[in-house]
Amino acid sequence: MTRERNTTVDHSALRTNQAFIIGLLILAFVLDAWPLVAFVAAVMLVGTAWPGAALFQRIYRHVLRPTGLVKPDVIPDNPEPHRFAQGLGGTFVLIGAVLLAAGVPVAGWALAWLVIGLAALNLFVGFCAGCFVYYRLNRLGVPGFTQSPIERKRQVQG
Question: Closest Cα partner for 133 from 120, 123, 118?
Answer without folding.
Answer: 118
